[in-house]
């Protein structure tokens, strides 16, 4: 992969070209375990680097503020129709520039300033855009929290969720996470939301590809009103966002207005083209096999971590990611683990664990997942091997000789499983 590209950049901009070559080399020779990252197909990269980057298209297909929209209208319509089919949605807005932008537009579409959102606590797996005190939306809306009842099983405290909902009367009950490894009881969310008259929104940024592949539950099947997502994680598309509405035309209209002109200017049409290509790939039967393998590989890693006595938050995984308390189990901090694993060619991220006692910059945990390694064709055998290498590396953090041997094993795995260019 990645050979003989960027000839024009090479000719005119050696300084920038060096960074492209470096990143290609890094991606080719290391194993990517950051659960929110993936490798896109060459087709997605072609669309993302296409002439659609030249075009201004404020508005929506058939209703734009600039001329010359024949092909942008066709292309965006293809993206919308594919998105609806993938998620069994009534409406799709494919213009959000990312997951954070999608969430902000969704909040403004569904609420007035001062209204309340009930979302998952960040330290229990939620996300910054679910109202963390440091974010701008926290100045506009009021955010209240639910947590897990038991951090070692991942069970959500639905009784507490209901109690907080009854007390605060939120306009939105938000299900979704960026560091949580269990399925949610979507029916329970809907039941509580009905009781208090709230909208149900699922932020499925991490698991969108798993929903599209049919291997985890689709919140729309349980009556959720809206889903927000990124398009570049398990869904394996270009960097971007999307908002889906189950059936309400009124909600869909409000969301369209909130995205444009409410929040964004000209949509990134090249990125929407990339989304259309990725959605086409996700509709292909092979994507279901890919999604199922992501889960099998994560389970294989869970088995090794448990066998080696490393504490996993939520007691394991039912999706693509795992959270390990490496400080509690192996005496290495999340930052140290991230650094030493980087040295042997494995990329993941440090992460706070529930009820963290350390700091965000040097927490107790690591978060890792299987979407990208599965794209390379790795299966349970390789997932098991990688988990063993990870634990051996963390145990040998100061042993230069052992680390060199472990790095050689990672390089050999990468050579055996090159990053593919074509998925369908
Ligand atoms: N940065 C993404 C993640 O890694 O989960 C979410 O925003």
Instruction: Say what the CATH topology of the largest domain is.
Output: Aspartate Aminotransferase, domain 2
Helix content: 40-55%
* Range of strand content: 5-15%
The order of strands across the largest sheet is 4-12-11-10-9-5-6
Question: If you had to describe this structure to a student in words, what would you say it looks like?
Answer:
The chain is of the alpha/beta class and 424 residues long. The longest helix has 23 residues, at 285-307. The protein starts with 6 loop residues before the first helix and ends in an 8-residue tail after the last helix. The chain has helices spanning 7-12, 14-29, 42-48, 70-87, 99-110, 158-168, 186-196, 208-212, 249-263, 269-283, 285-307, 326-330, 334-343, 371-375, 380-395, 400-416, and strands at residues 31-32, 59-60, 63-64, 91-93, 116-120, 142-146, 148-150, 155-156, 172-176, 199-203, 226-230, 241-245, 321-325, 346-347, 349-351, 365-369. The mean pLDDT is 97. 51% of the residues are buried. The protein contains 16 helices and 16 strands. It is globular, with a radius of gyration of 22 Å. It has two domains: 47-282, Aspartate Aminotransferase, domain 2 (3-Layer(aba) Sandwich), CATH 3.40.640.10; 286-416, Alpha-Beta Complex (Aspartate Aminotransferase, domain 1). Residues 36, 99, 127, 178 line the site of D-serine.
């Amino acid at each position: 992969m990645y050979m003989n590209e960027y000839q024009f950049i090479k000719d005119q901009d050696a300084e920038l070209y060096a960074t492209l070559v470096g990143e290609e080399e890094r991606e080719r020779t290391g194993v990517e375990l950051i659960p929110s990252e993936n490798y896109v197909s060459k087709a997605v990269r072609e669309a993302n680097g296409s002439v659609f980057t030249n075009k201004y298209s404020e508005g929506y297909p058939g209703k734009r503020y600039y001329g010359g929209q024949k092909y942008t209208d066709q292309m965006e319509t293809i993206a919308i129709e594919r998105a609806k089919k993938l998620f069994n949605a009534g409406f799709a807005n494919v213009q959000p520039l990312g997951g954070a932008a999608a969430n902000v537009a969704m909040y403004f579409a569904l609420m007035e300033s001062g209204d309340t959102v009930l979302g998952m606590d960040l330290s229990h797996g939620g996300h910054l855009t679910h109202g963390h005190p440091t974010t701008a939306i926290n100045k506009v809306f009021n955010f209240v929290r639910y947590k897990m009842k038991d951090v070692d099983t991942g069970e959500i405290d639905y009784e507490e969720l209901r109690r907080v909902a009854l007390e605060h009367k939120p306009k939105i009950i938000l299900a979704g996470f960026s560091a949580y490894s269990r399925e949610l009881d979507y029916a329970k969310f809907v039941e509580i939301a009905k009781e208090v008259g709230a909208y149900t929104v699922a932020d499925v940024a991490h698991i969108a590809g798993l929903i599209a592949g049919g291997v985890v539950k689709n919140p729309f099947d349980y009556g959720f009103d809206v889903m927000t997502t990124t398009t570049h994680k398990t869904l394996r598309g270009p960097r971007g966002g999307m908002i889906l509405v189950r059936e309400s035309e009124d909600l869909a209209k409000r969301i369209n207005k909130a995205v444009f002109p409410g929040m964004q200017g000209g949509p990134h049409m090249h990125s929407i083209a990339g989304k259309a290509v990725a959605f086409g790939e996700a509709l292909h039967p092979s994507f279901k096999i890919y999604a199922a393998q992501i889960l099998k590989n994560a389970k294989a890693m869970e088995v090794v971590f448990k066998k080696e006595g490393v504490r996993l938050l939520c007691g394991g995984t039912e999706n693509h990611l795992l959270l390990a308390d490496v400080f509690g189990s192996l005496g290495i901090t999340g930052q140290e683990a991230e650094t030493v694993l980087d040295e042997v060619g494995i990329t993941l991220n440090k992460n706070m664990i529930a009820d963290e006692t350390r700091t965000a910059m040097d927490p107790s945990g690591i978060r890792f997942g299987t979407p990208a390694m599965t794209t390379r064709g790795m299966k349970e055998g390789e997932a098991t091997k990688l988990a063993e290498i990870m634990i051996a590396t963390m145990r040998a953090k100061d042993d230069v000789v052992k680390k060199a041997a472990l790095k050689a094993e990672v390089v050999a795995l990468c050579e055996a499983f090159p990053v593919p260019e074509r998925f369908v």
